[in-house]
Amino acid sequence: MAKNKLPIAKASVETTETKAAEDREMKYRSEDALRDIERAEAHKRDKVLMKSVKQLAKSKIKCLSKL
After folding, report:
1. CB 41 within 8 A of CB 35
2. Range of the domain at 61
3. Cβ distance 37 to 31 under 8 Å?
4. Is the pTM of this model over 0.70?
5. d(Cα 40, Cα 36) in Å, to the nearest integer?
6. Number of domain units in the chain
7. Given this model, what pLDDT does residue 8 score?
8. pLDDT tens-digit profile of 36-58?
9. What's the chain's average pLDDT?
10. What is the structure's pLDDT at 42?
11. Is the dihedral angle over the CA atoms 33, 35, 39, 45 positive or is it negative?
12. Can you give 1-48 as a three-state secondary structure string?
């Protein structure tokens, strides 16, 4: 009987570890997304950079429209 209970307890520990790993991954992804948003906002405030970005975007659109 002890052998039947051991895998159940082990599975419970594995489930807890998996949940903890998923929580850490979600926290990491959330922090990364927040950094992306902060960088995007900083770029949007940079007028010189945005002018260059718009020129680049127009150039890419022109190239893609030839396809």
Report:
1. no
2. 2-65
3. no
4. no
5. 6
6. 1
7. 56
8. 999 999 999 999 999 999 999 99
9. 87
10. 97
11. positive
12. CHHHHHHHHHHHHHHHHHHHHHHHHHHHHHHHHHHHHHHHHHHHHCHH
